[in-house]
Amino acid sequence: MDQNEEFISAAQTATLERFEVMHRAPSNIALVKYWGKHESQLPANASISFTLSAAHTITTVVFEKSNAPKVAVVLEGVHTPAFEPKIEQFLDRIRLYCPFLKGYSLHIDTTNTFPHSSGIASSASGMAALAMAVVSLEHALGGIREEDKKRKASFLARLGSGSAARSIEGPIVSWGEHAELPHSSDLFATKFTQSHDIFQTYHDSILIVHKGSKKVSSTLGHSLMNNHPYKDARFEQASTHMSTLVHALKKGNLESFIAVVESEALSLHAMMMTSSPYFILMESQTLAVIKAIWAFREETAVPVCFTLDAGANVHLLYPDQYREPVHQFIEQVLINYCEDQFYINDRCGMGAE
Ligand code: PMV
Predict the structure, then answer these.
(1) Are residues 173 and 204 in the same domain?
(2) 261 in ligand 1 pocket by Cβ < 6 Å?
(3) Is 30 in the pocket of ligand 1 (CB under 6 A)?
(4) Which atom belonging to ligand 1 lies closest to the Cα atom of 41?
């Protein structure tokens, strides 16, 4: 049987006139990065992430039966037609698995807890919240059992934005098949349940060194991996990194955790700098922050490290017991590299609600 088949809903028809639901879904930050994909949003390598908490999206969806179904998106209280084609594309991709959607108009009202111009991608949290809403409707129609909802939501979220699959659960989630991860799948993300306690309460302070949206979309970035001269070496490295990181997460080995996480961030950006066409998403402040973190770690032995997303902002990762010295370091040093001195203190969270 095609593995996708289990996700085709038993609910074929829309029997409710109207259904309204609100969901909250967080963003996430990858430790081993997903960069490169195949058809239908399948990852070229397995990835693993911390689910965040403060940075999240709250979405209310009203599904209403209609003879002429349409989609309306209201973002931060303002009707935003520019977002509607992306939602229509997502609905087209999931229609096979959610046939009951046919005949419903969707009114989507969404807000992010982080500023729009902060450079934090809202696609992971936004798509995860929307996927949860669709699965809630499916449940109300009797098409899915309560215990299967999160798996299906992750499966659907993946079809909207790959990394969104990892925003349904928390605090540590993997996506993509890997020998070290039993029950892992390319189709949906799963919770990593064997982590040492120290990683359950990890902090992520997001230093906004550059506000504004990304210059290169992740869709383009992923596609440039198809003909990348280093792609085989990169996918092999990601797999080795995953094995090392899984062991570090189980044992609470911070030294090994730091070595993998920082190497992953730099490898992601090295792929960007060596693709054709090449591009750079880091800013000079990004490098200044990285060097300051290295100097601080050397001097104080505080196990703080950095990671980067597909952008210039720096995520500072550290255990709960070191929050005071790290916050002092941010306030005294790193804040000066942030645009308008802006940063967000976030930490691991439990996923969508
Ligand atoms: O989910 P996408 O298509 O926006 O890709 C996300 C890619 C990275 O954020 C750079 C890495 C990751 O694993 O989240």
Answers:
(1) no
(2) no
(3) yes
(4) 3
Distance from the alpha carbon of residue 132 to the mean position of ligand 1, in angstroms: 19
Residue range(s) defining the domain that contains residue 247: 198-347
Distance CA 132, CA 351 (A): 11
Strand partners, 306: 316
Looking at the 3D structure of the chain, how many domains does it have?
A: 2
295 contacts: CB under 8 Å, gap ≥ 6: none
Cα 213 to averaged position of ligand 1 atoms, centre (Å) = 15
Is the domain of 331 the same as that of 298?
Answer: yes
The closest-lying atom of ligand 1 relative to the alpha carbon of residue 166 is 14
> Does residue 283 sit in the same domain as residue 179?
no
pLDDT of residue 10: 82
User: Is any ligand 1 atom within 6 A of the Cβ of residue 160?
Assistant: no
Backbone φ/ψ region at 212: left (φ over 0), alpha (ψ -120 to 50), beta: left
Looking up tokens 């880091």, which residue turns up?
A: 282
> Is 161 a pocket residue for ligand 1 (Cβ < 6 Å)?
yes
| pLDDT single digits (tens) 139-187 | 999 999 999 999 999 999 999 999 999 999 999 999 999 999 999 999 9
* pLDDT tens, residue by residue, 5-33: 889 988 777 789 999 999 999 999 999 99
Q: Tens digit of pLDDT for each residue in 115-130? A: 776 667 788 999 999 9
